[in-house]
Amino acid sequence: MALSTPTVAIIGLGALGIVTLKNLLEEGFDVTGFEKNDSIGGLWRFTEASQTSALEYIPSHPSAAQVQQYLDNYAKHFELESHFRLKTEVLRIDRVKEQQKWTLTLRTSDGKEARETFDKLIVANGTNNMPKIPTLTGQEDFKGEILHSKDFKRPAMFQDKRVVVVGIGNTAADTATALCGIASQIPRKMPNGNILDQGVTYRMTKIQFSMAKWAPSFAENISNKYVKKRQDEAFEIKPEWKLDSPSMIHALPIVSDSLIAELHSGRIESVAGLRKVNGERQLELEDNSVIDVDVIVWCTGYSWRYDFLGEYDPTLESHEGHIPTITGKAGPHQRAIPRLYRNVFSMDLPESLAFAGLAAFHTPIFVSADLASQAIAQYWKKPELMPSKEQRQMSYAKHMAWANRILAHGKLDPRFVDAQVWTEWAEKAAGVHISDHLGYGLTGWKFWYEDKEFCKMLMDGIYSPHFLRLFQSDRRKAWGGARVAIENANERVRERIAKASEAAL
């Protein structure tokens, strides 16, 4: 009797869910993706934006609308749309232990509830789904408007209003500069500036990984000094702005071409933190000063939400050996470090429950999600690849020890993993064989001898996501167009550098 094709439910059809669905389909699974909104894309879908034409080439600084168009094109190209269930919200998930299946309670587009059962489950609803909105003392007396950055859509709505933006991250920087209302005047060219990620090579990445493995403090110091040097070359940052520069291991860097210019112009003023509401439109700050405002925009991030998984929620704080907070201090916290194998698989049910988007480091999340979902597909296709429970527990213990070392000196984003350790595991699990062909083993020397010029391009050229599809594997198919795509990407970078050099003369 032939075995039936395993069914897989994917919750969430943002970028994480879409690439995961594609990779599972590619390996022969019967996959259905659920999305509560009426379109794919997650947070990239800006409902008030007009549609753009199809993009043949994604610019270096794409807008949200362009990223959304890319995701739409991706879904169409790989014929994924027939596997989408839009306007369908997952209300609850139950584990049917007798059948070893998952039952989803759904609210469909007509408002009715329904139940469906699947063999396997991937949670890809992301970590940006529950806005964190603090409450100020005396807030009930405030007569102005209070909103979270998730609801910030049109800057023109706040024209001539006094707005305070709370937060010091990329969202706060984008929100504050958008409110200045002079986007067309924002300088795009900075002194000695260029596109940093186009200078990141495979060789450089491997050197950084080796340094982080054998001399982590030295590697952290070198990375921070390099980024600080590039920052100071491009911007003049005044001490009175009190813009902290924490290590990149403790916080994501702010990437904004316009924030510093707006601070210099005075259109954005850096102030102390909020303490309390003093009146109908007045706030008291932590330095005892008072400001008058009409609008408060909280750019304070999001909380994770996995409570619909019940006892299988990986952030439950009852798990043994769990760090309950991102600071390491005692007390509840909704963003506890997830109890997962490699930040991907359930520790208790790895054969049927996995998560997308909870393994992160300083690399594009689209790329790491692609690699992680390839690993999921291979482990589920060939169950014998899954490590034993003891091995998974040992791996998790090592991850927690790594996290503890960082938490001893500051904060840690609970999604963060040791980049070198995780990438080595994921590439092997997915079967992409990059390290084999670009390493110093027999396969690497053979590849270099047979194609020296292309090997050098891979080592010292742009580190393209096409690497993941380049080499044939016993686990997954290579993409025949990967080499041409890599060569074209390098040619575009060379042309851009040449034009920039000419413009500088």
Automatic annotation (TrEMBL):
<keyword id="KW-0274">FAD</keyword>
<dbReference type="GO" id="GO:0050660">
    <property type="term" value="F:flavin adenine dinucleotide binding"/>
</dbReference>
<dbReference type="GO" id="GO:0050661">
    <property type="term" value="F:NADP binding"/>
</dbReference>
<keyword id="KW-0285">Flavoprotein</keyword>
<protein>
    <recommendedName>
        <fullName>FAD/NAD(P)-binding domain-containing protein</fullName>
    </recommendedName>
</protein>
<dbReference type="InterPro" id="IPR000960">
    <property type="entry name" value="Flavin_mOase"/>
</dbReference>
<dbReference type="InterPro" id="IPR036188">
    <property type="entry name" value="FAD/NAD-bd_sf"/>
</dbReference>
<dbReference type="InterPro" id="IPR050346">
    <property type="entry name" value="FMO-like"/>
</dbReference>
<keyword id="KW-0560">Oxidoreductase</keyword>
<dbReference type="Pfam" id="PF00743">
    <property type="entry name" value="FMO-like"/>
</dbReference>
<keyword id="KW-0521">NADP</keyword>
<comment type="similarity">
    <text>Belongs to the FMO family.</text>
</comment>
<dbReference type="InterPro" id="IPR020946">
    <property type="entry name" value="Flavin_mOase-like"/>
</dbReference>
<dbReference type="GO" id="GO:0004499">
    <property type="term" value="F:N,N-dimethylaniline monooxygenase activity"/>
</dbReference>
